[in-house]
TrEMBL record:
It comes from the Eukaryota. This is Uncharacterized protein.
Length: 245
């Protein structure tokens, strides 16, 4: 009947009721008992309002979401400038994740690890999933590096400098680097000091330290800038001058 008074509960009945209270009154559901590893832990709330976290005792706080956890237990465990992050863990489920999706959880699908930071730069992925090239924030490809930093030669997983478009010299490792001369697909020339030229044995300038291409096929071993030196070396020495010409 409208306006009828509620039955007054006995003290022991009142103690068994959920502690959740609103301006409409106290929750009428009974308090729940949580279980972990065969041990039972009484909660101050009913099954609709209790936080499901048990850590030596049932959590005394009220849940705030449908996953069944309180504000404290869905908080990200990552750090921001030495202070604990205030974001909620990924998926709002601390049973699955410890870190927030925004700043601390690895972006790899289903990964639960904390992402890697380098000198405060967010590299977006954890150590297991990030490219191992220093400062790179892309995920690993088929080996330890991302697609851009993995050599494009078939079945090669070695490091490449990266950058540029597919097929450019920067997309190959030192062993498989391709000549930069137009339409040439030969590997670059290895100099006597072990360094690699930008061009293959048919196109590199033989002048020490020069990274330009030869002036033309079959016209010597030097680029345009060093060709005059090559030609001068073939001329006879002029008497009493030490010069050639």
């Amino acid at each position: 009947m409208f306006g009828a008074k509620r039955k007054k509960l006995k003290p022991e009945e009142d103690r068994r009721r959920c502690n959740y209270v609103t301006i409409q009154g106290r929750c009428s559901q009974g308090k729940v008992t949580l279980s972990k590893d065969g041990v039972r832990f009484p909660s101050p709330y009913c099954r609709y309002h209790c936080c499901k976290k048990v850590d030596g005792a049932a959590c005394q706080d009220m849940r705030i979401n449908a996953k069944g956890f309180c504000q404290r237990h869905i908080q990200c465990q990552g750090q921001v400038n030495g202070t604990r992050c205030t974001n909620a863990v990924r998926g709002y489920d601390p049973k699955e994740f410890k870190f927030c999706a925004q700043y601390h959880n690895c972006l790899a699908l289903d990964c639960k690890n904390e992402r890697f930071y380098s000198s405060e730069s967010d590299l977006k992925f954890c150590a297991d999933h990030r490219c191992t090239s220093p400062g790179c924030d892309r995920p690993k490809h088929t080996g330890p590096f991302c697609a851009s930093h993995t050599c494009e030669a078939p079945n090669c997983l070695a490091f490449a400098v990266g950058g540029g478009g597919p097929g450019e010299p920067t997309r190959y490792c030192d062993r498989h680097r391709v000549c930069q001369h137009d339409q040439c697909e030969r590997f670059t020339h290895a100099r006597e000091n072990g360094g690699l030229s930008n061009f293959c044995g048919a196109h590199y300038c033989a002048w020490d330290g020069c990274e330009q291409a030869r002036e033309g096929a079959g016209e010597g071993e030097h680029c345009k800038a060093h060709s005059c030196i090559e030609v001068a070396a073939l001329l006879p020495e002029m008497p009493n001058t030490g010069l050639r010409g």
